[in-house]
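Lecture notes, continued. The same structure-token format from the folding unit now serves as the input rather than the output. Read the line below as a description of shape only.
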């Protein structure tokens, strides 16, 4: 189960925060076990960062799966074609320079040869 983005934003500010959030509503945060409440504006400021982090996690997972699917081709007893080497390099470089969720959403995966 994924932690929702509001809780992740809170944990960026206070990694030890104990909270519950009802129905993904930022105005329904329940602060638990003496956790000092964080202003909503501070939490909202973290949301774009959290969204970017989550998008990058998903992108890396997809990229890593595609790399794993071709790992056998890169073993020492195989000769990796130039096209496959380029494909794998392009996959590894896929995350370079990405700074926003919009950048991540715009990524186009290379075509496997």
């Amino acid at each position: 189960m994924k932690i929702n983005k509001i809780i992740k934003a809170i944990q960026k500010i206070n990694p030890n925060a104990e909270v519950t959030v009802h129905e993904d509503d930022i105005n329904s945060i329940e602060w638990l076990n003496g956790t000092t409440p964080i202003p909503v504006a501070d939490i909202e400021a973290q949301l774009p960062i959290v969204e970017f982090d989550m998008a990058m996690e998903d992108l890396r997972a997809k990229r890593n799966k595609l790399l794993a699917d071709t790992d056998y081709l890169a073993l020492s007893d195989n000769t990796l074609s130039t096209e496959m080497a380029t494909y794998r390099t392009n996959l590894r470089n896929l995350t370079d320079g990405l700074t926003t969720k919009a950048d991540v959403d715009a990524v186009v995966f290379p075509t496997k040869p």
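Point for the exam: The first strand starts at residue 19 and ends at 21.
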